[in-house]
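Hi L.,

You mentioned the student needs an example of a multi-chain input paired with its predicted structure. This one should do, with 723 residues in total across all chains.
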Amino acid sequence: MMQVNAAVKKKRKIKDACLNAITYLSSGLGAFILIAIFVFIFSKGFSSLGFDLLKGNYWSNNYLVSVEESYNQAGNYQAPADLNEGAAFSSKWGIAFVDAQDQNKDNVILIEYVDEASPFARLLDDSIKDKQVTLSAESGFQVERISYQDENGITYTAGNIMSQNAKELCEALDQADVIEQAYFKTPGGGIRGSILSTLYLILVSLLIALPLGIAAAIYLHEYAKQNKVTALIRSAIDMLTGVPSIIFGLMGVTVLFPVTQLFGATTTNILLGAFTMAVILLPTIIRSTEEALIVVPKSMRDASLSLGANQSQTIFKVVLPCAIPGILTGVMLSIGRVIGESAALIYTMGTYVNDAPHLLSQGTSLAVHIYNIMSSEQPNFELASAISIVILIFVLILNITVKLLSKKLNKAWY
Amino acid sequence: MKSFVRDVISTEKNEKKLRKDKRMRACFFTAALLSSSAIAVIVIFISMKGITPFLQEGVDFFSFLFGTTWRKDQGIYGVGFIIVNTLVSSFGALLLSFPLSVLTALFITKIAPKKLSAMMTTVIELLASIPSVVYGVFASGTITLLVSTLAAQFGLVTAGGSSLLAVILLLAIMIFPTITSLSITAIRAVDKDVELGSLALGATRTQTNFKVVLTSAKSGIFAGAILGLGRAFGEATAVAMVAGNKMFGPTFNLFDTTRTLTTTMLSGLKETTGLDYDIRFSAGLVLMAVILLSNLILNLVKKKVGNMK
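Structure written out for the whole complex:
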C-alpha cells in the first residue's frame, strides 16, 4: 500500500514539474521576443543614430554651381590650425575634404572646411537660369563632381563619381587652373521634419483632447446620476477604445477634413491628424482622469461645500489639484499613443516626408516616416531601425514616468 | 457621486452660486456628450460613405461581398476572400498566442518567484507599449527571413518571406501582451477560498493552479482573447509590411502571400476621390461589421462557457 502511494506521488510530481516547466517556457518565450526585438532594432539602427540624423533634412539639396568669373583663380591658402587630421587640404584652392559614409554606407567625400577667400566661397547657382544667385560651399556638403581645366585648357572631372577619395580629389585639384563647374549635394536622410511634425501633433491633439476629456470625466464622476443616459454615455466612450485606428483615419478624412478646410487646408494636413488623434485619445484621458477623481476622498468635497464653496469652485480648487498626478499619467499615455500611432495618420496626414512642416501642410510623424521607408521598393532598414530607436527611447521614458507618477499618486498626502 | 452636503444646501440663499453651478454643469455635460457622440459619428459617416459605391457608382453589392478578386486596375472589387483571409490570419494568431499568454499569466501570478514575476510584468508592459510600426520593422527584418528559410526547407519559394505565416506570427506576438495582461487581471480576481478549498482536498499547488484557478478565471481570460482578436483584426501598418497583398484568394497556404482588410485599405493611397478611394470606406465598413459580429458571437460563446461549471 505504501509503495503504491509512493509511485502515485512520484508520477504526480513529474506531471507537476512538467506543467510548471511549460509556464516557464512560455514566459521565457515572451521575454525572448522582447529581447530579440530590442537586439534587432538596436543592432540595425545604432550606427545610423546621431545628431546628424536628428537635425538633418530628409531630402538632399542638389547644387550645380560654377565659380564667379573674377575669383576663378588659384591662390595660396593656409590650412587652419584646428583642421581635422584626416582631412585633405588643398592650399591652392583653400578647401579641405574628408572621407565619410552616407546613410546607405556608400563612400562619399564631404567638404570639411572652406577658406573665406577661397573661390569655393563665391559660387553661382547654375540651375537657376536668369537670376544670379550666389552661394558658398559649406562644410558638410557632399562633393559629387568637380570639373576643372588644367594649364593646357583640357577639361578633367574629379570627385565622387570618379570614385576618388578626399586625398585623390585634393591632388587632382592641385593640377587645376580654372574650376569649370561643381556639383554638390547636402546629405539627406535626416528626420528633423518628422520630429517637428510629431511635436506639433502631440501639442495640438493634447490641447483639444485634454480639456474635453477632463470635462467629460468630471461630468461622469462628479455630476452624473446613475441612470440610463449616463450608462449610455459611458458605454459609448468605452466603445471608442475597441475601434481600430484605421477606422479613425477614415473618420478623420470624411468628418474632420471639412473642419480643417475652414482654416484654409487644401490637402490632408497635420492639423487634421491632430484632430483625429484627439478623438483617439479621448477615452484614455477620460479613464485616467476618472481613476484619479475616484481616489480623491469624498470628505474633502463635503468639507469644501460646507465652507460655502459651490460645486464648480470645489471641483476646480479642491478636487482637480488633487487629481493632477492621475491626469498627468493620462497625458503621458496619450503622448505615447500619438508617437506610436500610424494607420490613422497615414490617412489624415499623408505619407510625404516634409522637411519644413507646418500645421496646414502634409507631414509625417516618426511612425509614419518608418512606414514610408518600409513601403518603398528597397527599404532602408538602418534608417527605419534608427527612427525606431528614437521612438522606443521616447516610449520607455514615458513608461518610466508613468510608473513613478503612479507611485506618487498612491503616496498622496490625504 | 453621492454627496451628504449638496442636498442640504439652501437653494434660496445660494441662488446666484447655484445658477453659476448649473452653467458649469451644462459645460461639463456638453463635453461628455461630445466625447460619447464620436462613436456615433464614426459609424454614421463611414456607413454613409461606404454605401455610396453601391448606390451611385453601380458596384454590385453581392459580387463585392462574395468576390474573390481585388484588382483596382481592372475595377474589380471583391472583398469576400479578404474577409476569409482576415479571419484565418487573426484566428491563427489567436490559436498560437492564446495558450502562451495564459501560461505566462499563470506563471506571473502564481508560479514565479516574486522577483521573476515583477520582471516578467515589466516585460509584458514593454511589449504592450512598443508601437506597431516597430513590430513591423522587426517582422520584415527577422520573421520574413525565418519564414523564407523554413519554406526553403520544404522546397518552396516565398515572396521574400511575405506570407500568411509571417502575418500570423507577427499578429501572435502583437496580441500576446494584450491577452496576457487581461488574463493576469482575471487570475488575480479568483477567490482565494476556492484555491484553499482545492488545496485542502489534497490537490497539489500545480493541480490547483491548472484545474481550479484557470477554470474559475476562464470568463476573464476569454474576454482577453476577444480583445486580442479585435486588435488582430484592426492591425494595419505592421501587417501591411509582411502581407504581400495578393490580388485573389482566399489564401490557406501558409507560405503564400495574403491580403487582409486593413492592408487593402492602406495599399496605394494615391487618389483622394473616385471609386478607388470610396471603396476603402466600404472595406472599412466590412471591417467594422466583422469585428462587431465576431465580438457578438464570441460573447455568446463566452456566456455559454462561463455558465458551465
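You could point out the following to them. The first helix of chain B runs from residue 15 to 55. Chain B has a mean pLDDT of 87.

Best wishes,
N.
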